[in-house]
Amino acid sequence: MTAEAPPAPALSYGRLVPVTVHFDDLDALGLLHNARYPLMVERAWAELRQEHGFCFEGDWVAAGDACNAVRELRIGYEAPVTRPGTYAVHLWLERLGNTGLTYGFRFCSADGSTTYAHGTRVLVRLDAATLRPAPWSEGFRAAGRELLRPAG
């Protein structure tokens, strides 16, 4: 007889996106290297965008809303990741502006119950020709509204 795993905590906002930590993501001490956390978050964000049809395929003009740049990244580390395996990134939007957005994230256990790192990232949508801020499309904004964290 095997024990059942405890149920994953319900998320009241955002999405939990699975990510994999590989052996070569660990540093000399056997800990997930601090530079890998933002990489895992970026991969989760890219996967989420692709689910909604927003992707970069080599042409910045055709990329539309995928033509964006990071304005700010803040991250705090809570507990070390000490082994390869399946984890998750909990993603949500804190703010969805006309040309920018702030998304929050937690690097966590696969079920979302343990937080290893957390932070925010600010993105700015760019016009491919001028590299100046440009408005998000209505399709992107609609997808983003699904991820907005409730006020409170």
TrEMBL record:
Source superkingdom: Bacteria
Gene Ontology MF terms: fatty acyl-CoA hydrolase activity
Membrane-spanning intervals of the chain: none
InterPro entries, sorted: 4-hydroxybenzoyl-CoA_TE (IPR050563), HotDog_dom_sf (IPR029069)
PANTHER family hit by this protein: 4-HYDROXYBENZOYL-COA THIOESTERASE FAMILY MEMBER (PTHR31793), LONG-CHAIN ACYL-COA THIOESTERASE FADM (PTHR31793:SF24)
Protein's UniProt name: Uncharacterized protein
Species of provenance: Streptomyces viridochromogenes Tue57
